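User: I'll paste a sequence; please echo it back and then give the predicted structure.

Assistant: Echoing your sequence first, then the prediction.
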Amino acid sequence: MADILRGGTTPRYSDFTVHGGVVYCVEVPPSPAADITAQTAAMLASLEALLGQAGSGKDLLLMVTLYLVDMADYDAVNAVWDAWVPPGTAPSRACVQVKALAQPGWRVEIAVQAAVRSK
């Protein structure tokens, strides 16, 4: 059986999953009433904390997928993202427009994979 570490596990999902030296996280906005800038900033702060709990960090991101309900939000998301990612550590990244996300008011969802820090 493979060694898998899970954190914040509920019956439906885990806040993060670690396997094979890679951590996997998905984050959604904590407040559907917030604007895109606030949603993105809150999600990135939460991701940073989750990555830390999993033994990783934003400087170890490997791949990120952004899901946007409206591509008009792309520049605002990028402004927050660019200020958050440490210089020289940008991961591979995709941005996809979706018709809707799971909750009304959510404008963005982020899925990440990151390396676990060497011990």
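The beta strands are 5-7, 16-19, 22-27, 61-68, 92-97, 108-115. The two ends are 23 Å apart (CA to CA).
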